[in-house]
Amino acid sequence: MGRLTTHVLDTTRGTPAAGVRIELQREAAGGFTTIAEASTNGDGRCDAPLLGSDRMQAGTYQLLFHVGAYFRAALGREASPFLDVVPVRFAITDADGHYHVPLVVTPWSYSTYRGS
């Protein structure tokens, strides 16, 4: 059963990033359309997969992680993080696969990978 999941880790504080707004977009007709939105829980994860087996399709997607608002709230309103919205564009080629796309982030840098 295919699914898409994610989580966000704040390496500045060494904790999961709770309350990060995430948009999932799918490419169609030359542009991207938002098909799901969620926020991370206390463990830095979404409460449910962003895509479940009923909605998984091959195609090009992007996750938009709204980390600027998270860091302003976590570090104080005066904080001025370098990053605001982190886009991660990727392809789903196997609609039956498990795609896990985590974000490891600070106010100034990020990393991602295909997890398990």
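Above is the first protein from milestone M3; the second protein from the same milestone is given next.
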Amino acid sequence: MVNFEGDIQSAYDDVRSDKSETNWLLLNYPTEKDTLALAGTGKGGLAEFTDQLKDDQAAFGYLRIVVGNDELSQRAKFVLISWCGREVKVMRKAKLSVHIAEVKSIIKAIAIEIAASSKEDIRDEEVKKLLRKAMGANYDAQHK
């Protein structure tokens, strides 16, 4: 069982709100214990979020990304990222799959979920491509 520290619910609500500029939050393990803490939030999108990730870190991120097939179909979609850096210890890696279920008890609205161990796994264009695919019909051949 994972424990939660910080006002994660408020951060989640902030990312979800169309009235807020906050578009990501990061939960990480500040100690060896099974406690997830709110490590940060930001307004700089996926690029700013990925700057927070470290190879020796396990974390969960939640992002609001605006995507669409054209300027008239722009929608906010939400991404849950399970981050497991390449240098994360074996026991922490093993617990991530269990902890994701508990994270989802707070972070409920998700269009796509991505498991990443490298920043290359969460490049902007690839994430948007996955989101467009999740949106359903895509009549714009360049985004297939």
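Note on the second protein: The two ends are 40 Å apart (CA to CA).
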